[in-house]
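ok posting inputs for the zinc ion job
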Amino acid sequence: MSKQKPSYDAGRIEPARQAAWIERGDFEAPRPAAGQARVYVKPSSPFTSGNLHMGHVRDYSIGDAYARFRRARGDAVLFGFGFDAFGLPAELAAIERQEPPADWVAQCGERMLDQMKRLGFSFDYDRVFYSSDEGQYRWSQWLFLALLDAGLIYLDDATVDWCDTCRTTLASIQVEDGRCWRCHNEVRLIRRPTWFLRITPYLEENDANTDELENWDDLALATQRYILGRSDGVELDLEGSGGPLTVFSPHGDAVGLAGFVLLSPRHPAVDAWVSDAEVGEQLEQMRSGGWDRSARDARSVPVLDTGGSVSAPDGTDLPVLISPIVDARFGPTAAFGIPAVDEADRDVAARFDRVASWREPEDGEDPVAPPVDGARPAKRYRANDFSISRQRSWGTPIPVIHCEDCGPVPVPEADLPVVLPRDIKPTGEGNPLAERPDFVDVACPKCGVPARRETDTLDCHFDALWLWVPAAVPPEAREKQMFDHPDLREWLPAERLVAGGDSGGFVFDQRIVTKALRDRGTFDFIENGEPFAGCLFHEMVIADGRKMSKHLGNVVNPDELVEQYGADTVRLAILYAAGPAKTLNWSAGALRFANRFLRNLWTYSQDRIAALEDARHDEAAAADTEHMRDRLGKWCDNGLERITADIEQLQMHKAIRNLTRLFERIQDFEKRVVKRRGQLDRADAEAQIAALVLLAQALAPFAPHAAEELLIASGRGDGPDLLGAWPEPAAIPVSAAGAASP
Ligand SMILES: [Zn+2]
Ligand SMILES: [Zn+2]
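and the output
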């Protein structure tokens, strides 16, 4: 007699499974046992925007499947993350809602955690942190002091947008067509002291390591190479009116055709080339003209003639020009302008009579460059130091005190954290921090006279430099041992980072800071200074072939999908729809496919489990189908081998395709046996259920709720040891003697 079988009902299954996981503590990062592999899977750190979007769902579905897979294989897994909670988005939302950003961030974080739990993501939720928590940003301040001490942070002038009406500096996204987003008055550029992070000392090592990184996918490696912006070529030492100058060119065999030299406005020796007061003024204008954001187009980018020149090896004088186009191509250096071979140089040359000596050869043949003595191989990197301070109140306070006598003085470590007032309510006008005497007025730590606290805060990019660290430290130990807890040696470097393709900049700078922390001894156990042993970048999720936006009305809301289809369907669909390196154009088709697969598997498995009770065993019949069970066993072993390899490479779409194929084979097995014998022998039924159990185990990383419920229904018990284990090969009973008589 067949029992009443519950139909597939995600709304019933999923909350029950999620409650069981919490009850069992399945996702708590374990204390690794001896000999056990330690696997830290690092997902991206979301901004506290208030809502998960489909890109998050993609990111966490990949990471979660991998984390669950490694747990099932018996590894110690840490799957934890924290919120990137400081910064402009939260501040703007708080201005709009007229509430303190701290409150807004707390609400958003809670809502997003709720969404993640409903999607069944197996994070160690006890380890979740917010970069805006005092106990957290205390360590951002510690890192600032450590890097300052190592000479990797410095104060320099930088250009920022300023609104006279609102009395505040503006982020670039707050400036629209040169006007303030808030009051629509014209914005002007001002120079003001800004803190910079020096990354140049580690560019060479980042470059060399990039070739050695294993388990990094092509997309992730490509972003690292792009950000580094390495150019190979030659350099020459020349003499000129401004003194000695080393000049670079990527066109090693064409230097003899050089028509001029371009100098970066950030070149350390640039001032020596400016003898004329008028040229000096123009250089200053070029700098205050926001050259950081200058177009790379050589026809419109500012170029300045110094009037000076250098002597080329053949004795000709090469005019020296200054332009930020050098920075955009090769970093803050000097470069030959070779119009004969370089289109950008041709555009520059066309703008100056003094250098427009080059003409295109009339016969159209490539010009032949005369040989040049003294050229040696050289390289340049475009990546450069960047500013880390902002004139905003929702950020980590910079632990520096400005004293009239002593200059900028670091806050002593014992006085950390410099607390950000929690009740700060930014209005968009002024800098609320600078207007609070209780924050600003302080005694100089060095000489004791009245001094002023730095009122700039750290850009959230700085907080992100170490956002991969805290999850590895037990929450109760973070106050005292964030950077020297013994667990760090167990979990770091992270075995795998899973992040969006736009995270390349974060990752690049995290790699730099890890090297700096290694060199000061903090992370001496990370010898190559790489925070991530493996890295998978995935592309974004779009809809109707376009980026999702409220404006286009094509935003897909994960909550609605989960409500309608269940978390397992959504996870399976987003993983199946495209490989990680491809942009995922969301469609209901993938959703329907995933839902159909789960329903079919559910009904089919439940039917077979129920039918087992009535299955009879007959020695002769079982012997007659033994070769079919043998084949089923081979299908299972092959399928399992493929699925395992796919997951190891985080190619989840392939793994799911192989899962659906295996399901087809299991059904095929039954059809063949029925065709031959009319019905399944008990030995066949048991083999088939063993195959369905194997399938459910292999499905668990992707659709954990349904898979676990099926395993329970199959009589596997519901302890994590049975449910959680990755299947072994040769799990299918083939021999007829194995079948128990009813
Ligand atoms: Zn304004
Ligand atoms: Zn002082």
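notes: The CA atoms of residues 616 and 682 lie 5 Å apart. The longest strand covers residues 153-163.
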